[in-house]
Amino acid sequence: MPTKDKEDVVVSVDSVNANKAPSFTPSSDITIGKNIGAYSRFGWASDIDDGDEGVQGLHFELVSNSNVALFSDQPSISYPSGTLRFAPVRGQTGIASVGFVLVDDGGVANGGQDTSAVYNLTISIVESLSILVDGNVISWPDNGWYQVQEEGTGTYTEICAGVRSCEVAPGSYIVINHTTGERFKGIEVVEEGGDPSGVASSISVDGNVISWPDNGWYQVQEASTGTYTEVCAGVRSCEVVPGSYIVINHTTGERFKGIEVVEESGVPSSEASFILVDGNEVSWPDNGWYQVQEEGTYTEVCAGVRSCEVVPGFYIVINHTTGERFEGIEVVGR
User: Fold this and answer.
1) How far apart are CA 100 and CA 115, in angstroms?
2) Given 3-state DSSP classes, what are the helix, strand and coil percentages for the chain, each rounded to the nearest 5?
């Protein structure tokens, strides 16, 4: 009988000492436009747990990818931030199902588990995401974290953020998808009965090409100088230089004002030399209108100044004058 008791104790100790599987909580699937460039999402993986009271080393592994050719840089997740990163092949569209696991260094002795369950993510690279204008309401088709700013006076005042739609007064607006880094400039909201507004869902901008989905007779006019010079007409698409344009559907009489074509700048990384970090101060060398946001929550820390003192953490710096975004700016303090 004592021998049996001793065996029971040994089995119990082995069970207690067995490594427990790590785990994490994934976020949502990702949809971005094909010309965004390198993409990162801080905290895509959260509640990261080694299963053993935080005493083990951890790392993420990509275990499956249904469309490797879609990416120039394959998807990855960094520890401990849980930041998801990837870079699609420029200009290519497609869908990839990828799988990640979290691995600890506790081993598998005594029946232990050092690998989490597989968490799957669908990444969709599409032609472009559309901003919709219906009366005084600006909206968007996905669950990204969007911000609407007033553009008409050049102050870039925030109107609303973190919602699915935004009711605004007539005027010109910028809509920023902070989830992907996409910016939609020149969104026009007009008085009822006026011209149709903004970048309606039927007008697409892809790099330097403006296009439309139907066979109507369209004309593109240059609007930056106010001369309304015809750029092209009677075609299905129009390649233009950066600037502001009006697109007119002469078949229906619809007019789409404030179509903005900007220089392609991609999504600059934290390695950019022109965002400076000195102790707790983030700064930049020019007189552009900059905004600093806390990465993950996108909370504004400061805006419209030449430098910004912050607490240690990760930040996004946006140059609203040029549209450049600098993600993953790390401040460790003095």
Assistant:
1) 10
2) 5, 45, 45
Separation of first and last alpha carbons in the chain: 64
* Residue owning tokens 């420029």: 90
Output the CA torsion 68→70→74→79 (10° steps): -110
> Tokens representing 8?
């029971």
Exposed, middle or buried by CB within 10 Å (0-12, 13-18, 19+), for 284? buried
Sheet strand arrangement including 290-294: 300-303, 290-294, 313-319, 324-331
Q: Please state the pTM of the whole predicted model.
A: 0.47
Domains of the chain: 2-126 (2.60.40.60), 132-261 (no CATH), 276-331 (no CATH)
pLDDT tens digit string along 295-322?
877 888 888 788 888 998 888 888 777 7
The dihedrals phi and psi of 230, each to the nearest 5 degrees, come to -70, 130
Strands 30-33 and 119-126, sheet pairing: parallel
Dump pLDDT digits (tens) for 91-135. 888 999 999 999 999 899 988 999 999 999 999 888 766 788 878
84-88 and 71-77 strand pairing: antiparallel
- To the nearest whole percent, how much of the chain has pLDDT over 70? 83
